[in-house]
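Weekly modeling sync, notes
Attendees: AB, CL, MP (scribe)

Item 1: holo prediction request
CL wants a bound-state model with iron/sulfur cluster before deciding which constructs to order. AB pointed out that an apo prediction alone won't tell us much about the pocket. Agreed to run with the ligand included and paste results into these notes for async review.

Input as submitted:
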Amino acid sequence: MSFFLSGVHLPHRKRTEKCEPAEMPPPKTVILPMTMHIGTPARPTVKKGERVCVGTLVGEAQGEVSANIHASVSGTVAKIEDITLASGAKCPAVFIDSDGLMEKEPSLSAPEVKTSEEFLAAVKKSGIVGLGGAGFPTHVKLASGARTLIINAAECEPYITSDTYTLTHRGADIESAVSLFQKFLGVEKVIIGIEKNKPDAIAKMREIATKNEDVELKILPEVYPQGAEKVLVYHATGKVVPAGKLPQDVGALVLNCTTAASVAEYMRTGMPLVKKCVTVDGDAVKSPQNVLLPIGTPLSDVFDFCGGFSHGVHKVLYGGPMMGVAVPSLSLPVLKNTNALLAFGKESAVRPRSTQCIRCGLCMAHCPVRLAPFNIAKAYKNGNAEMLFRLRADICMDCGCCTYVCPAKRPLAETNKMAKILLREYMKTRKEGAK
Ligand code: SF4
Ligand code: SF4
């Protein structure tokens, strides 16, 4: 049996996949947190009262693993104030009052690059981060030196279709991105990994593969979490990324399809990452659709644009139902890596009460990395960090498959998240003790 053959079959509920995205007018105010990426927060470069245009730098990357942040509307900086993100972390945010004109920053032009270093420097300038949800700065990822590029077009979470829009409408940018990566990064082989449930997108990607002999189109089964990096690397190349290692350790680079298209768009236009296509769906949303909007748009404005709520909202998520993060307030903004906003009423949001574990083993059988979630939960309950270390709780990818299949409705994935925090603290103490 293959290592990564587990996972779960989910109802797709991708009712927005055929919908042409609606372009949202600029909101009254955008909120740009200096943390919209993994790594060091950016530093604000503007002051209250300053005029900015679309694409003006408002936050400068600090250090290597960080990302620039740019104004997504033209207008005036209203304030710079700390906000609390959905993760609970606090960071400064630049608030810009829009003048409604969407005037473009006059100093912007398409970058001229001749070398690999210049290409990576341009990507860094663009502020592009992993748009599939991870938010990892793209210039850092592209510098990995891997020779096999896997374009992640799986989009395996239910509801979300914003990548499908990229695949069906931005094929030219994906094709151009592939050429750029071949030219400047020495990429020898490109694999576009896509689930078989997207026939229109497959047809578009087949056009690219037909024209370029180094591009292979890999049609993948519809199994969640097909888009998780390690699962995708295995299904695309047959290579197993060992526990605690990254795809680059087996010579692969995984890049989300919208991230790749955004790199090409930046090289073509010089316009940094300032807007997004976001899927707005869930049973509480009156008019589910894909929306093109400025990054930093408050969530309340986005839901209003989609007709508001049809009934009481019990839960709002950034992202899909499996890996999404609960939104504590609709005053929070759309972030660079927000690919979906889902709103659910009480009936679909409240989970049934959990009962005793019946030792059926289903959670382990469906875990893509073959962990034992019931044992991890037990070790966490007992505060046994050494056992969590032995059970490799650190490699849990938060996919939620274990919670989904558990007949006793135990909140296994949520417990794993807490277990990982406990394990991290334990490892830190262990390291300090060894000094
Ligand atoms: S959330 Fe973690 S433990 Fe549960 S199935 Fe996914 S990887 Fe395995
Ligand atoms: S799936 Fe649920 S009931 Fe079955 S072993 Fe895992 S925790 Fe226990």
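Recorded for review: DSSP finds 14 helices and 17 strands in the chain.
Action items: CL to compare against the apo run; MP to circulate these notes.
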